Fold each of these.
Amino acid sequence: ELRRIPHPPGRLPLLGDLIGASPRTPLQDSMRHARRLGPIFRRRAFGKEFVFAWGADLVTDLADETRFTKHVGLGIANLRPVVGDALFTAYGHEPNWQLAHDVLAPGFSREAMAAYHPMMLEVAGRLTGHWDRAAADGRAVDVPGDMTKLTLETISRTGFGHDFGSFERARPHPFVTAMVGTLTHAQRLNTVPGPAVPLLLRQASRRNAADIAFLNRTVDEIVRVRRSSGGGEGDLLDRMLETAHPETGERLSAQNVRHQVITFLVAGHETTSGALSFALHYLSRHPEAAARARAEVDRVWGDTESPGYEQVARLRYVRRVLDESLRLWPTAPAFAREARADTVLAGRHPMRRGAWALVLAAMLHRDPAVWGDGADRFDPDRFEPVAVRARPAHVFKPFGTGARACIGRQFALHEATLVLGLLLRRYELVPDPSYRLTVAERLTLMPEGLRLHVQHRTPPA
Ligand code: HEM
């Protein structure tokens, strides 16, 4: 029952609502439509109708796990040739989802996280080494570029014992280039009608096949090294290769391991890199928030060289800065929910079994009914415990919802809080006054072209 759902004016037969849409910024286009059309709306492209929901009451209903579940469609389905039925891209009915979830979830327990902590510190040390040199030379740092190096090294070393040498390279590692290539391709496939893909994207498809082959080769080599070394110290790769399901005794197949490794290397770093970059942007533009965060780091950490695992969780204000950045720019900005059976969404919109809607987290997080009129303003105090308790449960969803929510949430939050703490303690962040926030989209969001000058607060020891 779509008739009651508004859509943009001036529809064309084949192009639908694509007039004026930019293929490079589909999310920000949808945000503009959302502001005009309200909490639920639809857009049409190439004969397909897409429903977008972002009003708090609608999303609360879509979060009901008894009636709705993750929908694998659009950009996610386009990634199936790359990562098959690994965790992120598996259909709910595929047995490999439960198997991999049960085998890998202990890799994200508190104990596992505490074991990754020293390695996270070590990688952060590479970043500060790199920034120290930039500070000494008076050079600006490339924030998204450096955060991507940091988060890729963090997941690859803690999870897979692999060193990409990102900080020793002038250009991104070819693995990153191939990964960005496949993500961009997956997004572009949505902007071209299926039958026209061979014609319009022939060259792009060939390049995509080469990118996939490169990702596979890289991962096969990581697995080969691990197998020949006779096992690591119980990281994610060891779990994938050696752990049997506690009840069924089943193990992941070699092909599934390959898909999981690529999934974790990609999902484990893109979004966290964006989250750190947005947080650094806001900190550089809000000196009063930066000062409060810095004072907290000084108080909680003192001048210890290596803050411990427990000391990161105690950076409450730094964590609020991160939450507030993820509110304004949830770096995985949307997720899809489908009806498990015929149902009525929020008592108003009938949905057939399998029908689905895209939740625009980036707009849910700005719903004035929940966040007030100043919802576009950066204000970490929104995440003070009293304020959080006063809000409904399902209005902040940067990590998705339900059984298919992000398995790496604690990993990302620990890593990002640790790194923000280290950077705030060591540097003043000086923005380029002419920079205006521009958000780049390639399935995930990133502040495009963000550069900062960093100056030492105190001389490095
Ligand atoms: C799933 C966001 C970091 C691994 C998801 C989903 C979201 C998300 C929204 C659900 C997608 C959907 O419903 O279709 C984020 C954000 C992160 C982050 C914003 C950082 C700030 C990480 C990290 C890892 C990771 C560090 C791994 C170490 C995964 C995996 C899934 C997932 C494997 C699929 C889970 C499943 O379906 O069972 N993430 N993520 N993510 N994330 Fe993350």
Note: The CA atoms of residues 370 and 391 lie 7 Å apart.
Amino acid sequence: EGKSVLVVGGAGYIGSHMIHLLRDLNIRHVVLDDLSSGHREALQGSRLIEGNCGDATLLRNVFAEHDIDAVIHFASFIEVGASVRNPAAYYENNVCNTVTLLSEMVRADVKKFIFSSTAAVYGLPETSKIDESHRKGPINPYGRTKLMVEEILGDFEKAYGLRSVCLRYFNAAGAHPDGAIGENHNPETHLIPLAIAAAITREKVLKVFGDDYDTRDGTCVRDYIHVCDLADAHLLALKYLNQNEASLAANLGNEAGFTVLEVIDAVSRLAGQVPYEVAARRDGDPAVLVADATRAREVLGWTPQYTDVNDIVSHALQWYRKIAA
Ligand code: UDP
């Protein structure tokens, strides 16, 4: 009682689904978000402190005013291509600002941290499913920023006793089934919302980035995981930190892969024909990225609910219709 969870980046895509869940469960929380890409409406009235987690003075005030027990950190830049063109911004925001946040946590004696990591920490897969022991070798600055933070967390645990759960997301997708929140990136770069927009507006032709990969139909295979299932995993991670003395890194994925053409097919069935053309490969895209999520299931007790790609697409579609209306 009385303790709050600080959700950094709570106004963003995955963060807002976390906030929705915390509200549903009456878990006290405060959001810190600079609204650089998040949306105030997505908070549905949850307490927002507007600012960046690289602002040490602001953080000091937040930790002094609120009785914070744990921090969940969603605020980061997420575009692989942009990280190649502008690595400075990525290292600054994803690494430096996170170090500031962690240092202020240590200063305020807040010792539980849940971090949005990514399958991009692995780089090119050496096995058909990737488990957490897979070699780490990110192939772009974005992935390197996430791996660096994971390594920094190891050092912070040894030196300061700050414990963490690093959740390595595969492809976050979908929207809350109640229709209240969803994905709203600007610019949008993700496959499912782009395919839906192409099907509905018929204004833009979806570009399929490469059809000569070594996969069943030549297009890339990805493991799409529903955003509400991701939020659930964070709640379990919080429980884990309350009940265990250790830190953890765990993959979050459905352990099933869909090709780009299979996703287009699912969208076509639910939203209408997706106009598409085959384009060049996108830099930094491995052919296949599929999770082995045994650890999340066994150690965190995680059971994803929306494992059917049709559910993921139909929730995304419901949200698309709402924001397009
Ligand atoms: N993709 C595509 N056309 C697009 C966007 C994405 O063919 O306009 C492909 C992309 O190459 C990858 C998959 O769809 O194989 C998922 O990409 P997304 O950007 O959604 O997520 P990422 O894997 O980069 O996190």
Note: Residues 80, 171, 189-191, 194, 206-209, 220, 222, 260, 282, 285 surround uridine-5'-diphosphate (CB under 6 Å).
